[in-house]
Amino acid sequence: MRIVIEASPEAAARRAAARVAALVRERPSCVLALPAGATPQAMYAELARLHREEGLDFGHATTFNLDEYLGLAGDDPRSFRARIREDFLDAVNVAHANALDGATDDPARECARYEAAIAGAGGLDLAILGIGSDGHIGFNEPGSSLGSRTRVKTLTAETARANAAHFPSSEAVPRVALTMGVGTIRDAHACLLVATGAAKAEAVQATVEGPVTAQVTASALQLHPTVDVIVDEDAAAKLERLDYYKEMESAQTTLEGT
Ligand code: GLP
Prior knowledge:
The chain is of the alpha/beta class. Helix content is 36%, strand content 17%. The protein has helices spanning 9-26, 41-54, 80-87, 107-120, 157-162, 182-186, 201-209, 233-236, 242-256, and strands at 2-6, 31-34, 62-65, 67-69, 96-98, 126-129, 151-154, 176-179, 190-195, 227-232. The structure holds 2-amino-2-deoxy-6-O-phosphono-alpha-D-glucopyranose.
């Protein structure tokens, strides 16, 4: 794991966007997994700026949204599909944007279709991830199998509360979702986890320094060979080896001559 600690959420967003942009330049036909949520918004805005001002071209790229509420159609403004479209896709020129259909009447078939579509695209090059305060990635709540594939998952009350911003109340947040599995995410060639703010500090500590456990599904990333964890100081605040990660990153930056 490469742990990158930036001074502010804005700097973390720029760093994450630079990571994505480097991949898009190196491999224009790359396949990305995209998270919804508040955290990636600044990264998406920076990617949109790079597209607008520096010609970053997504014209050969493919994207797959990580997850979706079951029961919400893609044109529902509360759906993750609508959020990601508004926050990112409308501002760039992604060639093939894929999403789970929350309005499906056959969730198992929809999940199987999605797995096949990811495989058909050649697999994920980069899974971009946020993290829930309980350490989940996608909607892989505590207890999810670390080998799970895209499937239906019931959300915890904590997750419903955390995702209530676009709903009248946390009771109105759908409690069932479709999500890429932990295994689907782990099959990505590389992963990029972005976390900012003090509310994520415990989850980040457990992800990076805790045991690998289905109780903190992001901890499965410890088993992945190529993971960047980009956090701001607040989200890094509970890391026990904080100083070491900073030293390591500074040495790595020197090695890369950046
Ligand atoms: C939801 C999503 C996750 C996201 C998490 C954190 O649970 N399923 O993919 O990472 O929320 O969202 P935020 O960035 O708004 O804190």
